């Protein structure tokens, strides 16, 4: 596998990743979701189902990686993917609302689930990666210089 330049600072281990998705942090997220959706079991279950699918995808992807530096790279890629999906769903929902169209329940549940999974994965992702991804995805496309040599 490709060797990555090691990042400085604290590094997330597989144990850290598993603890975030299976421990007290996740339990608190579930309590937050119950409070947000006012204990509506159908809404809570829909969001938790979507969260479980996202979390499973992260854990399956990370499972074969044993090198801690490669795990940091993978977490940055996963963070980028989740953040991109979150922006996509929120943009879609906002434009629908602005146009007077009710967004689908599925889109709302997905956006909510992505919010909560991002809250779990962001603290595990290297701060430089979070900063770079957030800055890049937050830029307007027209403001990005695609040809820096020009």
Structure description:
- This protein has one domain.
- The mean pLDDT is about 85.
- It is about 70% helix and about 0% strand.
- It has helices spanning about 15-20, 25-35, 40-60, 70-100, 105-120, 125-140.
- The longest helix is centred in the middle third of the chain and has 31 residues, at about 70-100.
- It is globular.
- By secondary structure, the protein is mainly alpha-helical.
Short description:
The protein is mainly alpha-helical.
Which terms summarize this structure?
150 residues, mainly alpha, 6 helices, 0% strand, globular
Total helix count? Answer: 6
Order of helices and strands: HHHHHH
Cα shape: globular
Mean pLDDT equals 85
Main sheet: strands, sense, barrel: none
Q: Which structural class do you get from the secondary structure elements?
A: mainly alpha
What gap, in angstroms, lies between the N and C termini?
34 Å
By DSSP, the count of extended strands is: 0
Summarize the helices and strands and which ones pair or pack.
Layout: H1 14-22, H2 24-36, H3 41-62, H4 68-98, H5 105-121, H6 127-138
Helix pairs in contact: 1-2, 3-5, 4-5, 4-6
């Amino acid at each position: 596998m490709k060797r990555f330049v090691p990042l400085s600072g604290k590094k997330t281990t597989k144990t850290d990743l598993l603890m975030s998705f299976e421990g007290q942090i996740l339990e608190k997220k579930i309590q937050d979701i119950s409070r947000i959706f006012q204990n509506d079991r159908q809404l809570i279950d829909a969001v938790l189902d979507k969260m479980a699918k996202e979390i499973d995808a992260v854990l399956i992807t990370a499972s074969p990686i044993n090198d801690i530096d490669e795990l940091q790279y993978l977490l940055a890629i996963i963070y980028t993917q989740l953040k991109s999906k979150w922006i996509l769903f929120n943009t879609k929902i906002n434009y629908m609302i602005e146009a007077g169209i009710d967004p689908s329940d599925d889109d709302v549940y997905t956006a909510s689930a992505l919010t909560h999974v991002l809250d779990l994965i962001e603290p595990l992702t290297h701060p430089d990666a979070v900063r770079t991804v957030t800055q890049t995805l937050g830029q307007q496309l027209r403001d990005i210089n695609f040809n820096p040599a020009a």
